[in-house]
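Teaching assistant's notes for section 4

Start the section by putting this record on the projector. Ask students to predict, before seeing the second block, whether Glycerol-1-phosphate dehydrogenase [NAD(P)+] will look compact or extended. Collect guesses on the board.
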Amino acid sequence: MFTKTSWIKLPRNVVVGHDVLGDVRDVVADTHLRGRPLVVTSPTPKEVAAADIVAQYEAAGTDPGLVEVDTASFDAVERVIDAAEAAEVAYLIGVGGGKAIDIAKMASDRCDLGFVSVPTAASHDGIVSGRGSVPEGDTRHSVAADPPVAVVADTGVLADAPWELTTAGCADIISNYTAVKDWRLANRLKNVEYSEYAAALAEMTAELLVESADSVRPGLEEAAWMVVKALVSSGVAMSIAGSSRPASGAEHLVSHQLDRIAPGKALHGHQVGVAAIVTEYLHSGERGDWRAVRDALDAIDAPTTAAALGIDDDELLEALTTAHEIRDRYTILGNGLSEAAAREAVAKTGVV
Ligand SMILES: NC(=O)C1=CN([C@@H]2O[C@H](COP(=O)(O)OP(=O)(O)OC[C@H]3O[C@@H](n4cnc5c(N)ncnc54)[C@H](O)[C@@H]3O)[C@@H](O)[C@H]2O)C=CC1
Ligand SMILES: O=C(CO)COP(=O)(O)O
Ligand SMILES: [Zn+2]
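Reveal the predicted structure now:
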């Protein structure tokens, strides 16, 4: 008897382009969302975009709430929920990098309110995904949350953001190669549910970005366009899968460990990129595709070594040998990488 069910949640309006920041109210008006919003942001994105959005609503006679967050934590989610309830808002607008967007996404899901995603950096593929990523103690949660009802990505804002944020977004996409390899491995060895459509979309997204690497250059709106389209596509792959598997494998586990061992030293996308060189080596060996991963990162100016991340060799080795403990997600790390194997992998790939 056939018993499978799949429920794919996707955004209704995804608006990407030049000067679209000024259209946030119009884009929202095209959805079912009505009333006062709560704008969830962090200090720099507030100046770059959130203040403009607040001004749009004020000019139209609506007084939006505003709350600032600075970390991806469950405490921050609770603070936003309290602010949303106190201000009796009708929906939330997340404005910023991955952390502000994740917090707004999870808070709106918990309050059963709509969510609008306004990225100010092309730095991560959580812009449209139906997931939130939050550390807690020794673990890292990938929380299911309704994806945004609408996304407004202004290519001018994204192109003006610091270049390293864009290269981090590219590296987050390049890591799809190893994430999908880990997913297939987990499917074969542990019967983990797998979607060929989601995997193919995640891989194709990485492929298209790598092929366009020459055009991804600082300050160009065309480059921001290409990268944000890839980030949207990767987020859609996660929504089709109903998990972050198409975009998060062992390289993400290593990055999540680095967030605990060496907090604040490097961007999420850069960490997963460097870790992907090593996990690709583990998948396919010395003659495998790890050079292609490294060269793809290099072509878009993303770091390819621990030193370029600002992370000590020992910190990376600790992350590599303990990453399997962080979450119940089977990957090429299996039940743990030995220190000797980790040393060999980082030496062979030139990551250390
Ligand atoms: N939910 C999901 O599916 C996914 C979630 N993530 C999560 O996203 C986070 C990483 O996102 P990031 O954006 O790298 O980190 P982030 O949100 O900490 O942003 C990095 C920095 O960039 C600044 N920034 C943002 N826009 C700026 C602009 N226009 N000009 C100047 N500075 C600007 C932010 O204020 C922050 O200081 C991690 O917590 C990661 O786990 C990443 C991928 C997928
Ligand atoms: O960062 C992600 C995809 O790029 C998703 O992160 P998780 O590993 O927390 O699911
Ligand atoms: Zn990621």
